[in-house]
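batch job 7 of whatever, protein = Carbohydrate ABC transporter permease
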Amino acid sequence: MATQSLVLPEVSTRRAIRRADSQRSTRLLLGSSTTARTLAMIALVLMTAIWLLPFAWAIITSFKTETDAASAATVWPASGWSLQAYVNVLTKGDLPVWMLNSVITAVLVTAITLVVSAMAGYAFSRTMFRGRRLAFAITVASIMVPGQILIVPLFQQMLTFRMVDTYAGIVLPQVVAPVMVFILKKFFDAIPQELLDAARVDGAGPWRTFSTIVVPLSKSILVAVAIFVFIGAWNNFLWPFIVVSDSSLMTIPVGIATVTETYGLQYARTMASAMLAALPLLVVFMLFQRQIVRGVATTGLGGQ
């Protein structure tokens, strides 16, 4: 009982501190004026509505028949709600195959990018070698290079290595993420050097220090980076569209672009495919939204 009586005030004190910090951050951003807060809330509601309107239209269209979807006379289904578009997508199309391809490529891109970016960020942050500053400057500068410029040389490389129409051809060009290296490097810079020195005194080498000290302390930012990379790889259209022509290797964005019939685009089927394709991303965001917010706050608002 005594232990519980000590724990409860401590928990309530932590909650009060968090609430005060949140209120203080709100005042810093919006000020103490009620008018400013009201205007900010109105602006947020309007922006949310603008973002949700196309999403709502897509959901409604996916439950229409093709005749109602092609008609602009009414927003609501004139012939009633229908699941035929979803049935057609799941039974007559290749959506399950495209979704499996998207899962495979997105998971591989995320895993490889996370490992490469974390090791590169740690090397730039804590390892001293000749040309380190120049290499990091080149890495940061490459963030400003549009990815579209690299499409032709990348495709030529895939042809040379015979990786066109393969998973490797889809995955490998996407694993280089300079912005993630920069974010992780800045996070690793904030880790106290004393912890790393203590690990070295205990006999830990660079790899053990990285795996047992740095990685456990960086779980929040690693999760955030993994989620951002996964979403980017899942939604990537241009590169898979260029490097893949085999329908059995297409990802969801490329496959949805091919959902057509002989007499034109099927709006209801396309929207149903888009809704099914968005479900995994919604699940990922709902499960890891706290880690996403924490990672963004740590790398941005925290000044690190």
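notes: The first strand starts at residue 260 and ends at 261.
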